[in-house]
Amino acid sequence: MREEFIQSVLFNNKADKTQVKFASESVLKDISDEQLNEFALFALSMKTKYDNSIQMLINAVNEYQKQNYLNVVRATKPFKNIQTLRNFINTYFKGKIVGSGIMPFFYTHIRLNDELQLVNENTQRVLNATDESEFLENLLKEQEQIGVYRADLIAFRINQRDNALKIEQLSELEKIDSRVYVIDKKTLELAWAKLFSLKDELKGVNK
């Protein structure tokens, strides 16, 4: 049953019996029968079918085990200091996102480059020592967010920030209308034009 599953689902019926047996007993030896279906879904998300490529299957097993280990790390929060956290990141996150929306980088993602340097995804600049230290200190407090790509959260925060700026500008323009400021006619006309423009932009904000 196990080898039939591996042959049909993972290898698309294109591997011979020797390859299937090797995959089952060697490559997938640490994947139990109960985990096999979950692993297959994970593996097929990386590549549609494996045909008869043992090496690609080995790569999938390695990534699957890393993912499971990362899930355990997020659940148990084992790191007690920045150095052990940094060592873990260096081992498992080369070329990957380390954290999203972690202070002081509230509006962006931080990635580990091939030289094991932390990089701001917005600016593509390597973090300086102070920013890296603050980022790692906050990630240490939020270990459940290690490696979590939170694109929706970042987009939401940016939208909230931009709308807050527009509302602040609108408030200033309303002060102009109530004669808080004394300005000439031309400036007043420009301010009113900006006011109407902002009101149109903010129509959907409070819906």
Question: If you had to describe this structure to a student in words, what would you say it looks like?
Answer:
The chain has a 4-stranded antiparallel beta sheet with strand order 1-2-3-4, covered by helices on one side. It has 207 residues and is α+β, with helices and mostly antiparallel strands. It contains 8 helices and 4 strands. 60% of the residues lie in helices and 6% in strands. It has helices spanning 2-10, 17-27, 33-46, 54-76, 82-92, 129-141, 151-177, 185-201; strands at 97-100, 109-112, 118-120, 125-126.
Question: What's the arrangement of secondary structure elements?
Answer:
Layout: H1 2-10, H2 17-27, H3 33-46, H4 54-76, H5 82-92, E1 97-100, E2 109-112, E3 118-120, E4 125-126, H6 129-141, H7 151-177, H8 185-201
Antiparallel strand pairs: 1-2, 2-3, 3-4
Q: Please give the count of helices.
A: 8
Spatially, the strands of the biggest sheet line up as 1-2-3-4
What separation lies between the terminal Cα atoms?
A: 56 Å
Give the uncertain stretches in residue-range form: none
SSE succession: HHHHHEEEEHHH
Rg over CA atoms, rounded to whole Å, is 26 Å
Structural class: alpha+beta
Fraction of residues in H or I helices: 55-70%
Largest sheet: 4 strands, antiparallel
- Count the E strands: 4
Q: Percent of residues in beta strands? A: 5-15%
- Overall shape: it is elongated
Question: What is the mean pLDDT?
Answer: 84
